[in-house]
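A note from the maintainers: we've had questions about how concatenated examples are separated. There is no special marker in the raw files; a new sequence line simply starts the next protein. For clarity in this README we add a label.
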Amino acid sequence: MNTIILKEPGKLEYQHVDLDTSLKADEVLLKVHRVGICGTDIHAYRGKQPFFNYPRILGHELGAEVIKVGSEVTTIKVGDKCSVEPYFNYREDQAVRRGKTNCGENISVFGVHEDGGMREFIKLPARYLHPSSKLTFEQLALVETLGIGCHAVNRADIQADDLVLVIGAGPIGLATIQFAKLRNARVVVMDINEERLKFCMVQMKADGIVLAGSDDLNEKIRTLFHGDLPTVVMDATGNPQSMKSTFEYVANGGKIIFIGLYQGDFSFFDPLFHKKEITLMASRNALSEDFGQIIFQMEAGKIDTTPWITHRIPKDQLIDRFEDLLKPESKVIKAIVEF
């Protein structure tokens, strides 16, 4: 089968690998149809992804078709279209026993800690598949991206009376905006990219936008929230300066959720943290139930991901075009590889 392997930072390579179609009793053989390119893939390509080894087959945002099932599989059938939940827990450690399957101590993320989906066929346990009879492979490939935002909003327990500031308008930020809006909260978006901010206003129906780096940011934020500060600040940038600024932006008694990952030590001014009695949270990956929630809402027409996809790339063109995805002038919001 055809496979795309990241041999080392900056070097993708096509390889042909023999396919073993034998299955364990609980496994399913899948034909990969669509693979989303995400920030993790780009960080790995640049050599800046933590907990990562080379060579590695990337790809954990998948839309795939069931072509064979193991002898004990009853929840999935041949022909089903599925999204893949790529957070595997091979050991029932403490977090997993408590339902935190998104952050198990021994978690293995498909396409990060082990080879992923940038290949024609994959074998996975059926429990990690989420089928839909209505969604396209392209839509299913975006469920995992949406899951990051969905889980973060669930972590924040956003209510209709919350004032939400989302910092970072990449795909994870867009997903966060989507689910905060579904909670009927007022949502303002901050980013350094004016084009993405316009996208958030037109396509995501944000209630306001703020250009990061402009003067008097606190006053601009207060104006957009009618004199108040946000009760929830969600940072999807992974930028330490942006993360530090969230302590200034958040209202007294408010919450900060760090969705983006910064690879280093992070510090903040403790007196301000205590003065405001801030709740600080991290958000990682998503839960199995998040996938079900997202598919239900997509099938009901409450989530439209069509405007997100700016680049569709046939698999045999990916290596030649991957570098272009890293350039700001390419204006990528979401790229999808067609297998």
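[label: protein 2]
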Amino acid sequence: MYTLAVVGATGAVGRQIIEVLEERQFPVQAIRLLASERSVGEFVEFKDESIPVQLLDQDSFAGVDIAFFCATDLISEKFCPVAAAAGAICIDTSTAWRMDNAVPLVVASVNGEAASGYRTKRIIASPSSSSLQLSLALKALSDFSALERVVVSTYQPVSENGQQGVDELRNQCGELLNGRPVKNKLYPHQVGFNCLPHVGDFESSGYTDAETGLVREVQKVLAVENLRVTATAVRVPVFYGLCQSVNVETKETISVAKARELFDGMADVELVDNVNDVEYPMPIDVSGQDSIYVGRIRTDESCDKALNMWVAADNLRQGSATNVVQIAELLGSKYL
């Protein structure tokens, strides 16, 4: 039985972590819900109990075994070392520690053994939902043949920006449907009934940090530093559910039939690929699910060693909360 802390407990990912802990019956002795001053006094349900939200401070982690961080980079940078010094193992969902060479970047079903590297800083990083989703899909193929090149376009929902993103899309859709002009607060342009080829901040290369981050994170998770990956990230007017169009070139030819067989045998991957019955993964179908869904698998007719596929998953649940709880399960079964 473990004493847990959830930093950012009232946010979208924090609430999902609490839900997944209960659903997967993680052995919880006590749970400490931590947040900023504006959330103190709120209650969150866990196992038929109303747990009060406490203020995050320097003394929050005494006696904590595992601390889940689902807050900003600044919060993680400041408080992960505090929690680690108090004896906790931190599992962090922010970008703060992902590319730190002393911190393992872990997707439980892909490189779970890397979690053992937590001992250096007592921190484990979880990748972005885009990187996690893509890594799972690529792992199934890379177990059969080495990867040569990956081209991915991601279609990212507004919930990746938390409640602010959800509220902005909801408000804009309401205004537009009633013939009224909209105001942009979070995004640089209207997101309602629109697509923005802009996720993150632009860099001098013309890519955004979300795109370059995806490339580096996938290389680190798959432990292939020279893997050629290029990405385009698009914000779409969808509340929940992240989709990706993926082109994968491999060293050996992988037939469509073989690819389907590989995906069928991969943990946390579901195959939905029957165009005759118009079946393929969609955001509305993956919400609340713990797997990634793969479909539209087809040979790239311009390259005989490449496949095209479409991948979808719940960005808050499978893309974040489920993975960090799975990492905690690995810690409990192998390292604690």
